[in-house]
Amino acid sequence: MIFGLHVDAASPAGTISCKSGVMMSACNDFDIVIKGAGGHASQPELCTDPIVIAAEVVTSLQTVVSRRIGALTAPVLSVTMFQGGTGSYNVIPDTAHLRGTLRCLDREVQARVPGLMEGIVSGIAKAHGAQYEMSWLEPNIVTYNDPAAYGVVRNVAERIVDGVSFVELPTAMMGVADFSEYAAKIPGCLFWLGVGDESGSFASRHNYSSRHRINEAAMKEGVKMHVGLVAALSMLNGSFTG
Fold first, then answer.
1. Residues of the chain with CATH 3.30.70.360
2. Which of 35, 62, 72, 126 lies 20 to 30 angstroms, CA to CA, from 172?
3. Where in the chain is CATH 3.40.630.10?
4. Yes or no: domain 2-24+142-237 corresponds to CATH 3.40.630.10
5. pLDDT tens column, 12-49
6. What is the pLDDT of residues 139-167, one digit of tens each?
7. Pairing verdict, β 26-35 and 39-40
8. What Gene3D superfamilies does UniProt report for this protein, alphabetically (predicted)?
């Protein structure tokens, strides 16, 4: 078995959070380049404005989530970068670049959505007389917690390690973990260690906040969990010597 620990600044210090089965989502990263024809801002009729086209793409892509996929398996689609122009007030650029992520908990949805997205991008570009390029990075797969490995984590948290409280997550998270690649080869379990610092502001209680702040004392509980897991596996394998 293999185990992974990830800190969580949003959870109280010392808590262990986990669930059996799908724990975290798959992720596909995409890039879209809209190719128009630039010119002067006073004569947009002589241009093919990639800014306007890309803006339409951003809003229209959300219909994939809300109108093409069932609510119970709906992915999260986020455009996280929009670049276009040279910084001039009066110049319409030739191109606009969009970048973002698609996150899914369902493999069939993960396979289907990219085609739906490209259909929208292609249709909008064609309607405006523009060209486009769309590319994808190698996708991340879902993080799946093996039921037996999950049982070991829960047992260690509840019975072996003092000072921690176990929280079973009711649903999977839409975040992504590289641990998924390990768990696809070896039965494993990823769990979260709460490191929330109650003395900080609300904005600090988020792993990716610029004000990220943790309760470092909680890291000791993470070490205890790892030691406890080693001991538990040794007992399961009959190699524990005390």
1. 27-136
2. 62
3. 2-24+142-237
4. yes
5. 888 899 999 999 999 999 999 999 999 999 999 999 99
6. 899 999 999 999 999 999 988 777 678 88
7. unpaired
8. 3.30.70.360, Zn peptidases
Using alpha carbons only, what angle is made at residue 191 by residues 194 and 193, rounded to the nearest 5 degrees?
Answer: 15
Determine the longest span between alpha carbons in the chain, in angstroms: 81
Supply the pLDDT for residue 205.
59
Q: State how far the alpha carbon of 55 is from the alpha carbons of 24, 32, 62, 89, 148, in Å.
A: 30, 12, 12, 18, 47
pLDDT on residue 240: 47
Residues of the chain with pLDDT under 70: 163, 199-212, 238-242
Please name the residue that has the structure tokens 């969990």.
Answer: 225
| pTM to 2 decimal places | 0.80
| CA-to-CA separations, 79 to 62, 72, 121, 221, in angstroms, rounded | 10, 22, 13, 37
Tokens representing 152? 């070991």
Residue (of 214, 172, 174, 212) closest to 193 by Cα position: 214
Reported as type and span, the H/E element at residue 151 is: helix 147-155
Helix or strand or coil: residue 153?
helix
Task: Report helix, strand and coil shares of the chain as percent, to nearest 5.
Answer: 35, 35, 30
Mean confidence (pLDDT) of the chain: 89
- The answer to whether 146 touches 2, Cβ cutoff 8 Å, is no
Assess contact for 141 and 111: CB atoms under 8 A: no
Taken in order 134, 104, 29, 35, the sign of the CA dihedral is positive
CATH number for 27-136: choose from 3.30.70.20, 1.10.10.60, 3.30.70.360, 1.25.40.390.
Answer: 3.30.70.360
* DSSP-assigned letter for residue 204: G
